[in-house]
Amino acid sequence: MIKINGKAAPEAKGNTLGQYLDENGYNKTRIAVEVNGSILSKKEYDSYIINDEDIIEIVNFVGGG
Fold this sequence. Notes:
Blueprint: E1 3-4, E2 7-8, H1 17-23, E3 31-35, E4 38-40, E5 55-60
Parallel strand pairs: 1-5
Antiparallel strand pairs: 1-2, 3-4, 3-5
């Protein structure tokens, strides 16, 4: 089962990571993505195909002071 940020996401299977991020409103310039324990570079987002058993963590950068 695909998990994204700790929640089941079976609808993401077969999509590229870039498609998933776009469809869910993520600003690709302000996030980091870890797939199965490894950080993906931003240039890989549009080529990485989400597979069964993937565990994906998406982290937003937040500014502040």
